[in-house]
Design brief:
globular; 7-stranded parallel beta sheet; 8 helices
């Protein structure tokens, strides 16, 4: 697929590290101009530098996806910089605490759902408005394998990621005849900063996470990112409304 996205523009949220950064780099590899967004400006600018050092084009725009005004400004700046918006990967997310449902703090529930679900909706809201004027585009949202099954101790995260799947399918149906495709990726346990934070608190959990996947290892951000970019590409032109597991076989059990 190398170079297949020349002349296109891609936006990635949560692109300062992990899956978001990997996706931004692959979009750059494929020739797209990349709008890198995150709340972490220093790491986001680092992603931009990596893309530019590889010969690509990229800019950084800071945005908190849970705030409508910042998301609207993000989309406006992306279009102002590059004139169009062809692909978006709505990836920004947090894990939240690991506690039983009846002990889950309300403020943490609100924070997780605001970023992981409302944030995806806000991004789609403003992305779709532009894509409809433009005549189409492709959106990929980051859900999770936990968006397709239950996980103990992660009530808000699981609820939000299930919500992303439902939101993805609804939008796919609404805009299927408007040249706009909407899909989701559902990563399994992947060696990202989010997972590393969990493992730092619970070192013995790594063996359990590896055991969950029939392939007996954690995924890499690049493996998830390749699926994201493929879903955006013309190779996936007949694919919309899909919540694609990229999970080493976890959900096949």
């Amino acid at each position: 697929m190398t170079g297949s996205m020349q002349g296109k523009v891609a936006l990635v949220t949560g692109a300062s590290s992990g899956i978001g950064r990997a996706t931004a780099l692959i979009f750059g590899r494929e020739g797209a101009k990349v709008v890198v967004s995150d709340v972490n400006g220093e790491a986001g600018e680092e992603t931009v530098s990596i893309i530019k050092e590889a010969g690509g084009a990229a800019i950084f725009v800071r945005a908190d996806v849970s705030r409508a005004g910042e998301v609207e400004e993000l989309i406006n700046k992306a279009v102002a910089a590059y004139g169009r918006l062809d692909y978006t990967h709505n990836n920004a997310g947090i894990e939240g605490p690991s506690v039983p449902t009846h002990e889950y703090p309300e403020e943490e529930w609100d924070r997780v759902v605001s970023i992981n679900l409302k944030g995806v909706w806000l991004c789609m809201k403003y992305e779709i408005r532009h894509m409809l004027k433009q005549g189409g585009g492709a959106i990929v949202n980051t859900s999770s394998a936990a968006g397709l099954t239950g996980v103990k101790g992660a009530a808000a995260y699981v609820a939000a990621k299930h919500g992303v799947v439902g939101l993805t399918k609804t939008a796919a149906l609404e805009y299927a005849q408007s040249g706009l495709r909407v899909n989701a990726v559902c990563p399994g346990n992947t060696r990202t900063p989010l997972v590393e934070r969990i493992l730092a608190q619970h070192p013995k959990r790594e063996a359990h996470l590896i055991e969950m996947a029939p392939v007996r290892r954690l995924g890499t951000p690049e493996e998830i990112a390749e699926a994201v970019v493929w879903l955006c590409s013309d190779a996936a032109s007949f694919v919309t409304g899909v919540a694609m597991p990229v999970d080493g076989g976890w959900l096949a059990r």
